[in-house]
Amino acid sequence: MRKPFIAGNWKMNKTIRDSIELVNSLRRELLDIENADIIVCPPYIALSEISDLVVDSNIGLGAQNVYWEESGAFTGEVSPLMLKDAGCRYVIIGHSERRKYFSETDEAVNKKIKASQNVGLIPIVCVGETDEERESKKTTSVVESQLQGGLKGLDSESVSKLIIAYEPVWAIGTGKTATPEQAQEVHRFIRDWLRNNYSSDVAENVRIIYGGSVKPSNTKDLIKQSDIDGALVGGASLESSFFGEIVKNSL
Ligand code: 13P
Fold this sequence. Notes:
It is built from twelve helices and eight strands. The two termini are about 10 Å apart. It has an eight-stranded parallel β-barrel with strand order 1-2-3-4-5-6-7-8, surrounded by six helices. About 45% of the residues are buried. The chain is globular, with a radius of gyration of 17 Å. With about 250 residues, it is an alpha/beta fold.
């Protein structure tokens, strides 16, 4: 039985002060929850402060991005070790907004996964198709090529330590959630792909979470699907009561 994994991706929202306020409120909201992994991913600049606030709690910390080099002349970038040092356990890699606005390729995703795992961070690897790709029935081939490129050269042990997030681009920030059946179909495809390329053990253990307009009202139906193990929540994670409800509805 895979433990539900619910992560809040705050994207480029919240000052340090706002981040502290939100996390304090989440700590109260989620105090009694034991049967889910709950993660928040604030902007880089708030990570260290938030880390101090969640250290003794049931809330884990993740970053929204990372660079693959260890250190050096890479102005504006942040290394895996720096994220560890700031208290992160997780890092989102290959989010569609990174792919779209910052031209992130599967090759970059691959390097970021490897560099992150080298220091013991757990990558949350995002895949998903655009509206156009779905319309032209390319969903599974797009997801497959993102998996092939992103996970290239990783052995079963490394893959078993990843979280995979299926985020259809057309459902992100649009209010247009994939139906539970649409999401389940792709999650099943990803799990079968893991089984065929690695092993049944890997396929059964890797958590595959859904992202794209997740709200308190649609969480239960999504999570009921046999291959959906949690959620990557954007907009609704910025409000503690909404995020709290999403976590509770996923149990
Ligand atoms: P929304 O929940 O705002 O659609 O964003 C989803 C997302 O991109 C999470 O990473």
